[in-house]
Amino acid sequence: MVTGTSGSASKQKQVRKRSRADEDAADLLLSASAEQTSSKKVSKERDQEGDIEMATVEANGVKPAKVKTSEFTYVNEYETVDAGKVDDSVRLFMKKKNFGPVNPLHDIPLFVDKEKGIYNMVVEIPRWTNAKLELKTKDQLSPIVQDEKKGKKRFVHNVYPYKGYIWNYGCFPQTWEDPTQVHMETGALGDGDPLDVCEVGSMVAAIGEVKPVKIIGVLGMIDEGEMDWKVLVIDVRDPMASKINDVEDLYHLMPGLVHATFSWFRTYKVPDGKAHNMFAFREQVQSKHYACEIIDECHQSWKKLIQGKVTHKNHHIMNTTQQSTPGLVSVTEAEAVIAPFIKAEVVAKEGAPKKGLHRTSSMTDMTDIPPPAYKELATKKPMLTIKRFCTELQRKFPHGSNDLSLLITELGIAYKCINGYICDHPHLDFGALASFANAQLHASLSSSGLCCLIYSSMANQSMPLESGIDVGNYIVVFNPLIGTPGLAMGSIFAVYYRKSAPGKEGDSSDLLQRTGYEQVAAGYCLFGSNTTLTFSMGYGTHIFMLDMISGHFVLAQQHVRLPPTGPIYSIDTTVLKTVPEGVSQFVDELEAPGSSKVFRTEQNMVADFHKVLLKGGILMLPGPHKKDLANFLSEAAPLGFIARQAGGRASVGKRPLLELSAWSLEMSVPLFVGSTAEVDRAEELILGHACHEIETINVEALLTYDMASK
Q1: Cα–Cα distance between 74 and 179 in angstroms, integer?
Q2: Residue 365, Cβ neighbours under 10 Å: how many?
């Protein structure tokens, strides 16, 4: 049977069995859709599991083909073909009027009106229903079916105080989250599905309905390590559509919606024994503009899929409208696919009213860090040790304390021990050297009484504090050793101030969902013929050199200025075949005839970054595979912090790196760090424009100490 899915001439009447508590909860969320009439014949059907009700609505009259709004005229071109089996399972194919069967993922266009920013949304799950319906994209023509696991139909549990899905839930056609590409700002791969959509308007959708919607924002959910975007939209025909244009409008016009959406997505899998879902961007909903960028990315990935440039086991590219594609078939062939599933009986399935939920805005106001004040610092006095330098620098500032100075000093002592061990054991392999470096750093920090949490990216876990020692207030993250024995080797660290209550050991919450701006210190040690320790405590970047006679790290260069542009560029050339197009264009520019740029790499990000810091240029780790990315907490964020303090920039290609926060201790991201001009140019080719840095540092305005007078 063919049933229309949108544009009804008469209003729907909802019929639902529920307790008074359910009615009260629903009335609060559905007050905006109270106007309804009884011109339709409504019949209730109960699913086999008894967990979901679907309202089947048959209009007494003919549904109009066009729906006019104040902005545009919407033409309803699509309807569903019920091809459910005798066991009452859901199987709905899509059909275009006066044409024939279509694949909802490939044949329905993404845009209704591109200039006005109006998109098509395919509804899979109506509000307040529990059945887990979705496009079965690995089947021919991608019918809407109920997902199954181990032979049983899947339902979402009710998440108190909500019933089923709390918005009209579906997807954007002609989009695909590519599972082979790492997202530059989260370090997570796509989940291989179409882009998910939550429609928050007051009207209830039907299964398979194609809605014209406009974008509000997007939240970045991390589902079992995969990127699972949730785009928030509203039907342009909704009475509230003209008033809701971005995420902030939801707070004023739909109070509680952002919180409810976030709460639902975080916990809806918990009743199945799974962990809470995590979210990128410090659990903030991103803006409309950012959401449109994500949609465009997924649309470009879909084009590669439909053209056969990439393949995926869960996607069948059969379609009836995409000319010159390998999956194109005739309408007759498509009808032959549907024919075996068609039932004689008529069943039109439609859901109940649904309300969408959203999230908060971007991180701009979360990372408003005032620039520190500086005083003039001269480099006249020789043999200025780390302890003396840090102590004097901290005393200069009103919030300074001696604890951070002592912590940096302890790290310096650990690095002296590691350097000596490397020099004394030139024939040991990397594993043995890294194990010693990891143990030495842990021993120095755990016995200092200054730390509440120590995390090693090598051990991939927090490391215990020494018993009987006071618990401090600092969190230290480090990568104990990077590089190749016999060549340049290095180590990186970052320091945060605890968020949890003092007096007890910290936990992962002290590290996760914290931006790179929240580091209080960061640095790296480069081992070699001249062992150097470079660090920043938020007041410029300084380089210390290990004096082999005295055995101390002494000041070699303070307030390092990273040149605005420079000749050095460093990248692993073996990844160039798989990098995003903008990155390959940038490398082509750097290598063009007549270019003054010089390629330098030692296959060691510490050594490569040190050259860039001194001479200017850019270090790139573009991915897309995890091994070709930088760990956010122990590598990317510390180097970005140091570059920023030296007047440079760090980016993931589409966003300033330090604006990001880790959703996982293992989160890895692309890294573009170095001179402002080179990083800006990389962003222009990848994103289309250079990103605006929330807080820049004017290195020329740094006021430093005259240490020689001390």
Answers
A1: 34
A2: 10
